[in-house]
Amino acid sequence: TSKGISNDLQKLLDRFSFKIIATPIQISTDSYSQWAISELQNFLIALNDAVSAFPDSLFIIKGKKGELRLVNPAVLEALKKHQNCYVIMSDVPRALEFNQFEDIITQCDLLISMSHTSTTIWQALANGVRAIGINDVHPHSFLNKYDYLEVRLSDLINAIRYCKNLDEKSWQKFLEDINAKVNLGQGQGLLQIVTDIKTRLNAKRCGAM
Description:
The chain is of the alpha/beta class. The chain is 44% helix and 13% strand. The protein has eight helices and six strands, in the order H-E-H-E-H-E-H-E-H-E-E-H-H-H. It has helices at residues 7-15, 37-53, 73-80, 101-105, 119-126, 156-165, 168-182, 189-208; strands at 18-23, 57-62, 85-88, 110-113, 130-134, 150-151. The protein has a six-stranded parallel beta sheet with strand order 3-2-1-4-5-6, with helices on both faces. Helix 3 links the parallel strand 2 (57-62) and strand 3. The model has no long low-confidence stretch (mean pLDDT 87).
């Protein structure tokens, strides 16, 4: 069980008005993986450029299952040199004493995922947090129909700028539109499934009577 946000990270969160959490993708070196170390490294290099471009925003790089240890150490060191960047190394996410993803996401204003297929995007949106999903190699998904929700890595800085400047009315309109498309609800997916099953069972019972 997490103990919440660590003191050093909380101090940074209190200093910045706009907070961004960036999540890489798990990469395997001894079994099949759709992601290469070079793609992870490119993602981190692009984030380093973004950290420099937005010194008034806090970037939290949240590792998942050891993937950050696979890149050139110089890439991580470059990120750590910025005063507006905080890197969380992780091998087993649930084993972290502090700073688990669920602790941090509700404190942030924007999520950047290395993959447009990551469930973290939906976790962010369900928590009212803006999101950007990177898609550098695949054909665009339906997410690309929404402004800067799915972008190429080369467009990351423009996407961040858009999310920072998005007014509340436009943000709420986006949430309404995408909720109508995917039934986002309140992020209580399991509860929605159970409720639906109960409704169907009750309907069957009523039909049999």
